[in-house]
């Protein structure tokens, strides 16, 4: 279990004014990498939209990395992109859609974005990108300029770049210190308590998994054949 001071520091550094929206992400590896970056750079909220475009049985469904960064984030699940973005717009978030360079309606370069107001950054699926419905609901599009020869970035890499920049600019816009967040005191205290509880639950789950693994290993070893020095099998341990 992590020391209490780490929960306190993490809760105090969280940024609620920058949110990430993932539309129909299908690769669990990308999802895990994105959540890790979001958590590591101090954001708190991730909205995941899984619409009917994701085929039934997709590996993105039902996958959970409960032992990773996910347990320190607040995840919001949506089945409809319009509902997700409408609710964010109702809470006064600016909606900005990430697109590849040269795509969209004259996308703004990432470096020009301001984060003095609550902002949600939308990233699309690996297969289709951002849906036309989502683009219509967004206030603007933006892109990560790529002066090199590569034409695009993996979505998890793009999110990491954007999250780092957004966190820096959000703190700069609010006059915050490098490890200071934008949560109210009551929210910070509630998050600290939640982190401590999540850590206890995760520690119990990890202990249970380790116990099951040891039991399975012991049972496997009990069933292993006994072999003499010349390699000839002489019997099963359970048979003698």
From TrEMBL:
Residues 18-163 form the tRNA/rRNA methyltransferase SpoU type domain. GO terms for molecular function: RNA methyltransferase activity; tRNA binding. It holds the Pfam family SpoU_methylase. One of its GO terms (biological process) is tRNA guanine ribose methylation. Keywords: Methyltransferase, RNA-binding, S-adenosyl-L-methionine, Transferase, tRNA processing, tRNA-binding. This is TrmH protein. The gene is trmH.
């Amino acid at each position: 279990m992590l020391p209490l001071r780490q929960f306190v520091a993490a809760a105090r550094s969280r940024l609620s004014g920058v949110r990430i929206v993932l539309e129909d992400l299908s690769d669990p590896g990308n999802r895990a990498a994105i959540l890790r970056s979001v958590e590591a750079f101090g954001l708190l909220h991730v909205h995941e939209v899984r619409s009917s475009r994701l085929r039934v049985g997709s590996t993105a469904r039902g996958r959970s990395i409960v032992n990773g960064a996910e347990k320190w984030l607040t995840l919001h699940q949506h089945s409809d992109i319009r509902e997700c973005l409408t609710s964010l717009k109702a809470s006064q978030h600016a909606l900005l859609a990430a697109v590849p360079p040269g795509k969209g309606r004259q996308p703004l370069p990432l470096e020009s974005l301001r984060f003095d107001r609550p902002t949600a950054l939308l990233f699309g699926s690996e297969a289709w990108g951002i849906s036309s419905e989502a683009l219509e609901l967004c206030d603007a599009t933006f892109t990560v300029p790529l002066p090199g020869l590569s034409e695009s970035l993996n979505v998890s890499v793009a999110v990491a770049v954007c999250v780092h920049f957004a966190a820096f600019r959000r703190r700069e816009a609010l006059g915050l210190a490098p490890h200071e967040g934008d949560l109210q005191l009551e929210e910070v205290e509630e998050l600290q308590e939640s982190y401590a509880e999540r850590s206890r639950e995760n520690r119990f789950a990890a202990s249970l998994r380790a116990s099951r693994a040891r039991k399975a290993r012991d049972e496997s070893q009990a069933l292993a054949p006994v072999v003499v020095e010349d390699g000839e099998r002489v019997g099963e341990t359970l048979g003698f």
